[in-house]
Design brief:
Helices cover 38% and strands 19% of the residues. The protein is α+β, with helices and mostly antiparallel strands and 424 residues long. A hairpin with a 2-residue loop joins strand 14 (250-252) and strand 15 (255-256).
């Protein structure tokens, strides 16, 4: 970066990271010696970065012995992920250490640590990271290279004003984001409540539907078929013409993307079955609660049960919407437990209300209108959240172009500040 590429504001200088703080690369005390680890000193790894608050606690800590061979960082040091996922940031909320994937900058007294922290969030720094990493298999910015990264330095008092303004604006943006995230949760709750109202509330009475909906266990109305996995060691069972679906292949109610196919020989010699189109897939184990409608003959693995439709009895979308409501009960009961999933018998025993086909079609219409409103609102919320993130980027851009707060000609120039740092 040169002055011709970026015109510096009055009183600013361009320097490098080595001139604004001490750079430390973290390390890992020997894992072979378990006594290096305990509960004495937080030990940060990249997954703990990008926290919204200073880091004071970590899942893994060092013992006093481990701390004695670690590189201990002071409070307010800035942590930067420099291997793999470049540019993830954190602030030390206490004395701590890091592993070798993190380079840290402990700012000199003349540098406001939060100013440096926000600079490292800017596009100036992120673009430099992308342009200067040692990109082989894994992206790396070593300590020496980081020391030469450009840093735009304003006068000390202006650093404080910039930090104050950034935090004022970020606080307003974060408050708006929090409100929108709450709205997203409310929309999900509305979807659940609306489905519950249709099947268990006074929907029938309000819209003049018949009250004599037949109720039977799901398994008494529809055939339910489980799946299986052909022997993966026998190549003749695979790469056939029939899609074989697992939970990971289900991305939406009408979005099934099979990654593997089985042969008829594989079907004949395993617990999987060929499932006809317009069947409802219910994930009952890994990925519990996922639902989808098939649009072609497929096979399924053991984590899925298929509800085979009878077009004279029920519409697939009606059954799917009903199950999307009732399956939440199983998901709730399985959260935080070691229960492996829902058994075929439990699925078969679900009480199922069966209106006439005409009423089913009308109910689908009501649910699709509600879903369209929900999805439209979700789209607006997600778009606004993206705009708020863009606003943060814009705030940082203005900050490091010297446009966020006014310059004060009475401030000591950064060049004097920099000379004082170099003289130490």
């Amino acid at each position: 970066m040169t002055d011709t590429e970026l015109e510096l504001p009055q009183g600013w200088v361009e320097t490098t990271v080595e001139n604004i703080g001490q750079i430390v690369t973290g390390n890992t005390p020997s894992k072979k010696d378990s006594s290096n680890y305990g509960n004495f000193l937080p030990w940060v790894k990249p997954p703990q970065l990008d926290s919204q608050t200073p880091i004071e606690n970590t899942p893994e800590k060092l013992s006093k012995k481990g701390a004695s061979v670690a590189r201990v960082l002071e409070k307010n040091s800035i942590l930067i992920s420099c291997i793999g996922d470049l540019g993830k940031l954190g602030i030390a909320g206490t004395q701590l250490s890091t592993n070798q994937q993190i380079n840290s900058v402990t700012c000199f007294d003349e540098i406001h640590y939060k100013f440096a922290y926000y600079f490292f969030q800017s596009s100036i720094f992120s673009l430099w990271l992308e342009a200067n990493n040692s990109a082989t298999v894994i992206k790396i910015i070593n300590k020496g290279r980081l020391s030469k990264a450009p840093f735009l330095l304003p006068p000390r008092n202006e650093q404080k004003r910039i930090v104050s303004k950034i935090e004022e604006l970020f606080s307003k943006i974060d408050s708006a984001k929090q409100s929108l995230e709450h709205t997203k949760l409310q929309l999900e709750q509305y979807r659940y409540s609306y489905h519950h109202w249709i099947f268990y509330g006074d929907f029938k009475e309000k819209f003049g539907f018949s009250s004599n909906w037949e109720e039977k266990p799901l398994g008494k109305i529809f055939k339910i078929i489980g799946g299986g996995t052909p022997d993966t060691k026998k190549s003749q069972y695979w790469d056939g013409d029939i899609p074989w679906v697992t939970s990971a292949d289900i991305h939406g109610i009408k979005n099934i993307v099979p990654r593997r196919r089985v042969s008829q020989l594989g079907i004949d010699n395993s617990a999987t079955h060929k499932i006809p189109p317009n069947s409802i897939l219910v994930v009952t184990r890994v990925g519990l609660g996922k639902l989808a409608i098939t649009d072609e003959p497929i096979c399924i693995n053991q984590d899925i049960q298929a509800v085979i439709m009878d077009s004279n009895v029920a519409l697939p979308l009606f059954v799917l919407n009903y199950l999307s409501q009732t399956i939440q009960i199983f998901r709730f009961h399985n959260q935080g437990t070691t229960i492996s999933g829902v058994t075929k018998k439990q699925l078969s025993d679900i009480p199922f209300f069966l209106p006439s086909l005409d009423e089913q079609e009308k109910i689908i219409g009501h649910m699709e209108m509600a879903e369209a409103r929900i999805q439209n609102s979700q789209s607006i919320v997600n778009s606004t959240l993206q705009q708020l993130q863009t606003m943060k980027i814009s705030v940082l851009k203005q900050a490091f172009e010297g446009k966020l707060v006014p310059q004060d000609p009475n401030d000591e120039p950064a060049s004097v500040l920099l000379e004082r740092i170099k003289a130490k």
